[in-house]
Structure formats: C-alpha cells, structure tokens
Amino acid sequence: MPLLDRTDLRLLLALAREPGRTVVALAAHLGISRNTVQARMGQLERRRVFLPFERRIDTGALGYPLLAFVHVHVRQQQLEAIVAAIEDIPEVVEAHGLTGDADLLLRVVAADAEELFAVNRKLLAVSGVERCDTNLAMGELIPFRVRPLIERGLADGQVPAPK
C-alpha cells in the first residue's frame, strides 16, 4: 500500500504552492469536502509527513546569515557521546551520519566568520572529534523542495511505498 494516495498528493501540492490556505480554501480548490481535508491533514500529521514548523524559520532573520557545512571525523566508539555534545552547540542546526570519508555532516550557522571559527573550536574540543572540514556556503542555488516529487507522484499515479 502506498504511503500517500492521489488525494494526499493533491493536498500536499496545493499546500506547497500556497501554504497559508485555510482548510475551507483547500477543500474548494481540490473539490472535496472540508471534513475530508481536515481528516487527511490530521492523518498526514500523525504519519509525520509534515516537517516541524521550525524548519521554515530563516536563520538569517535570527542574526545568523552565514551557513557552513562541516564534515566531522570522529572515533566511532564515542559516536553517541559526540552527538550529544554537538547537540549542545546552538549554531549546529542539523546533523547527519554519513558513509564515506567523514562520519558526520553538520549544517552550521553563524553571525560572522569569527563566530564560525569559534564554533569550529567548540567542535574540535568535543572528546572523540578528530578533525573538521568546513565549507562555507556561498549561496543557495536550489532551495529545499519536494514539489517536483509530488508532481511526479501525481503523474505516475503513486508514491513509492515505504520499505
């Protein structure tokens, strides 16, 4: 059974195009009842299809215009403690475990280059962190997007089922 059906995809596409639409406006746009829209929205929330609102807040507006990606090389045996320590650094807004040369990929924000340097020092001070390679983002060329995936799912008639 697919994770999302055609009605879910149409609803998500309408929200992607105009996130501020009310339930009534979505129902009118999609040609379905308000109750159906409300029920589907509830199901999508329970299934964690929607990301937290916090992901929509621009860190530049908070005074952190610099964005960097930091590849962190760690002692694998200490990974859990390392991640817990890194989580205490507010400028680290996202972290992913990786395969390949580096062990972690961090999305780090900073007010300026001096603060980014200080964040790097904090990272290197974490027990078990061996090395950091920092890349400053020069500009966002393709913003985060899922609309093309939704559109493909509607064109194909389905979304791949979860494994």
UniProtKB/TrEMBL annotation:
GO biological process per UniProt: response to amino acid
Keyword field: DNA-binding
Pfam families: AsnC_trans_reg (PF01037), HTH_24 (PF13412)
GO CC annotations, alphabetized: cytosol
SUPFAM superfamilies hit by this protein: Dimeric alpha+beta barrel, Winged helix' DNA-binding domain
Gene Ontology MF terms in the entry: sequence-specific DNA binding
Domain Transcription regulator AsnC/Lrp ligand binding: 70-139
Protein name: DNA-binding transcriptional regulator AsnC
